[in-house]
Amino acid sequence: MSGFKFKQFAVEQDDVAMKVGTDGVLLGAWADCDGANRILDIGTGTGVIALQMAQRNTEAQIYAVEIDETATKRARANFDASPWAERLGVEQTAVQEYSPLEKFDLIVSNPPYFVDSLLPPDAKRSTARHTQDLTFEELDNAVTRLLAEEGRFALILPVSEFEKYLTITQLNVVRRCDVHPIEGGAVKRVMAEFAKQKTKTIALESIAIEKGRRGDYTDDYRALTKDFYLKF
Q1: Per residue of the chain (232 residues), what is the pLDDT tens digit?
Q2: In which element (H, E) is residue 78 found?
Q3: Is 141 left (phi over 0), alpha (psi -120 to 50) or beta?
């Protein structure tokens, strides 16, 4: 098994298309889950973001949806093997068809993107990384429907795709973090939190991952992810 070990849990991932990556771990460490009683992870994949939510918020019930059958089974196994199995659940369904009894205080997603790019040959990876099964409009409609009135929605996207999402969303940006792979370099990812209501100001943040040499991580990145990565 090609597992990925974190400080308090492990993620097995040999049979899923999208492995644990920096984007998901960043979002799972950054999204504000304090005080959330019900959390939803859309497109959970291996379940890593949901597991991070369970570690960070010791009271919340965390739900996950995943369209791929193999990934759903893998996420369920990863949840069951974690210390928080009783608070984690996953359902194989398209989020467009997901109808829980209650709405969510926090929704998180590392969604599919590359709207206009050529599709890769691997079908599972295609589903995980392209929007033919979940367009930005469908994601936004689902989030708006499932989010509590005072809830938050957190996602991570490449800069160009984030700008596209901003043109269609019914929600309002309340917090944004620009992600620089290299300190002083260009912004490559954006993490953002949205709400149904506007705020007077948007909380603006930025983080750089490496100082310039591969593996030489910045203090900010270490501080954000230290509760998860073994190397920190």
Answers
A1: 468 999 999 999 888 877 888 999 999 999 999 999 999 999 999 999 999 999 999 999 999 999 999 999 999 999 999 999 999 999 999 999 999 999 999 999 998 765 444 444 554 444 444 445 789 999 999 999 999 999 999 999 999 999 999 999 999 999 999 999 999 999 999 999 999 999 999 999 999 999 988 889 999 999 999 999 999 9
A2: helix 69-80
A3: alpha
Structural domains in the chain, sorted by start? 4-225 (3.40.50.150)
Q: Supply the pTM of this predicted model.
A: 0.91
For every residue of 3-61, DSSP letters joined together read -EEBSS-EE--TTSSS---HHHHHHHHHS--TT-SEEEEET-TTSHHHHHHHHH-SS-E
Which residue type, as a one-letter code, is found at position 144? T
